[in-house]
Design goal:
single chain, alpha+beta, outer membrane lipoprotein receptor (LolB), chain A, 13-stranded antiparallel beta sheet, about 15% helix, globular
């Protein structure tokens, strides 16, 4: 009888110890946000788009300030050069210099459309909100991704203005990076798969160097999103985040 009691106590002790060592889903999201979200940043990026008709490369310079402001300027190839995007809060504009020389408002369902024929939507490109502000999170286990120990999280939306109602995320336990994601619509339909293929260190943080996006509603081979450089100590003038800057 004593052996049975001791066994039960041991099992309870082990369970409590494991539980104490595993952070909550919300704590993990806070760590991911702390690692990935910058107050200000300037990045140079490359999209390698593996479409049904071949592979093409699009380069851009991107400026982000907080969760409300983002500006993207495409620099290559020549036919895309000069196209720009501006995000202010929940408003988004796209500027096309030739042949139209006009500014187009992107809203509603258009935010979910592909950017430059890639596997990334307008929302994917400009989203800078914290995960903890958008999702409730539950830890469902641990798995290895590319040899890295990860927490497995199930995220469920807690706001209405969101493109992906739920996500399954594998978060690196040491680097606080989501190494793999599956994103779903409200009805459970899978929409996208995302994998971090390479990382680099920014001061005391880890950041994705190369990310593979796969739109599961398209038939292409996915889009590689490569961060060529990242400057988090940049001074961005207020005039950068204006509609007038789109035509400069």
């Amino acid at each position: 009888m004593r052996r049975i009691i001791f066994s039960v106590i041991n099992i309870l002790f082990i369970s409590i110890t494991i539980s104490a060592q595993t952070p909550s889903g919300s704590d993990i999201l806070k760590q991911v946000d702390k690692n990935l979200i910058f107050d200000k940043a300037e990045t140079v990026t490359t999209m390698i788009i593996h479409g049904r008709s071949g592979t093409r490369t699009v380069k851009s310079i991107n400026w982000i300030e907080g969760k409300e402001k983002a500006f993207v300027e495409y620099t290559d190839p020549a036919r895309e050069r000069g196209q720009k995007m501006l995000k202010l809060g929940d408003q988004l504009w796209n500027y096309i210099p030739e042949p139209t020389d006009r500014i187009i408002t992107i809203s509603g369902h258009l935010l979910r459309q592909s950017v430059m024929g890639s596997d990334m939507s307008y929302e994917d490109i400009t989203e800078n909100r914290k995960l903890i502000d958008m999702y409730n999170a539950k830890v469902t286990g641990s798995e290895k991704i590319n040899g890295r120990d990860c927490y497995v999280l199930e995220l469920t939306a807690k706001v209405d203005d969101i493109n992906y109602y739920s996500r399954k995320v594998w978060v690196d336990k040491e680097r606080w990076l989501p190494l793999k994601e599956e994103r779903y619509a409200k009805g459970g339909k899978p929409l996208k798969k995302i994998e971090i293929l390479d990382v680099f260190r920014v001061e005391n943080r880890w950041y994705p160097r190369k990310v593979l996006y796969k739109d599961l509603l398209q038939n292409g081979g996915g889009t590689e999103y490569v961060v060529e450089s990242l400057n988090t100590h940049v001074n961005i003038p207020e005039s950068q985040f204006t509609k007038a800057a789109l035509k400069k």
